[in-house]
Amino acid sequence: MGSPEQVADELESWIEETGLDGFNLTRIVTPESYEDFIDLVIPELQRRGSYKTAYEDGSLRKKLFPEGTDRLPQRHAGAAHRHI
User: Residues annotated as region Disordered (predicted)?
Assistant: First the structure.
């Protein structure tokens, strides 16, 4: 707990000390805990250059596997569920 600046300070210190590349958030009160983090802490981290302000187009799959495509190959078992 603390101000957005204090929370950002703590997160950045963990990154510097340990080399973390991300955080998993847990809720205290839903959805307010997430909303507070998004509305208060993320903008502070963005001002500091510690959090993205824009994202490249494309699916997560394409970003993780750039040699692939945005969709599973037709031969993959999961491709049968595209209609969902």
Answer: 65-84
Mean pLDDT per block of 10 residues along the chain (84 residues) reads: 94 95 85 91 97 90 82 87 78
| pTM of the predicted protein model | 0.70
**Residue 42 belongs to what H/E stretch?**
helix 42-47
Q: In 3D, which of 43, 51, 60 has the Cα closest to residue 71?
A: 60
Domain spans of the chain, in order of start: 4-81
